[in-house]
Amino acid sequence: MIGLARRQGVLEIKQFLRSRESVVFTMAFPVIMILIFASIFDGEIAPGIKFTQYFVTGMIATGLLTVGFQSLAIQIPIERDRGVLKRLRGTPMPKWVYFAGKVVMVAAIGVVETAILLGVSAAFFDLSLPSSASKWLTFAWVSVLGLSACTLCGIAFSSVPRSARGATAVVTPVALVLQFISGVFFVFTDLPTWMQQIAAIFPLKWMCQGLRSVFLPPSFAAAEPGGSWELGKVALILGAWCIVGLVLCVRTFRWTSARS
């Protein structure tokens, strides 16, 4: 069983790497955004805290959102329209292997992308990497929970686009809006209160907040909406979104297109 999942995962990774558009958009986009924003906004948002340090946490979360949610919500409708899912459903291969392959692909690409973002930020913009085992542990569980929630929501949302042609137009605006209201491009507390409240419903805001606790000094926690990092709440909400995403996957996933 594990061998089937591993082989399917390797196949998914190869298919991803063969698509230059996917590679460029998923892996290069966050790096390009860091280079642009860090070059333009080189000031401090608080004494001793550069905007770069704040922005990088948001871009790491955005990278996980892109590879987990956005890429799957676009890729799966394409496979559905091409009849790939219908053919897979007709083979003896257990259905869960298909999803396991997607999870392996997302995990592998997510690790590589995060490593690239950390390397670029540390090399060119003096990002201070976590200095203790506890911070690395927080970084790990926030990333894993966040990526899991984004992956499950991406699979569930893949049933929303009516066709492969419209998938990008449907999915990309959702991802962009979440980035703007979740404190990726701007300091979260500078956003209007109503926007903060909407963002607090979705996982990206909590991924950003959890990662800020890793890369920003403890003194900045007082500037958060709750006056602290609220890591317990971060874990609770990301875990809840994993459950919600799984339920939606089971109830809404379609193997064939509406035309079929």
TrEMBL record:
Biological source species: Phytohabitans rumicis
GO molecular function terms listed in the Swiss-Prot or TrEMBL record: ABC-type transporter activity
Membrane-spanning intervals of the chain: 21-41, 53-76, 96-124, 136-157, 169-188, 234-253
The organism's place on the tree of life at top rank: Bacteria
PANTHER family in UniProt: NODULATION PROTEIN J
One of the GO BP terms on file: response to antibiotic
Primary location: membrane
Topology of the protein relative to the lipid bilayer: Multi-pass membrane protein
Listed InterPro entries: ABC2_TM, ABC2_TM_bact-type, ABC_2_transport, Nod_factor_ABC_transporter
Protein name: Transport permease protein
Family: Belongs to the ABC-2 integral membrane protein family.
Location(s) in or outside the cell: Cell membrane; Membrane
The ABC transmembrane type-2 domain, residue ranges: 21-256
Gene Ontology cellular component annotations, sorted alphabetically: ATP-binding cassette (ABC) transporter complex
This protein's UniProt keywords: Antibiotic resistance, Cell membrane, Membrane, Transmembrane, Transmembrane helix, Transport
Lineage: Bacteria, Bacillati, Actinomycetota, Actinomycetes, Micromonosporales
Pfam families, per database record: ABC2_membrane
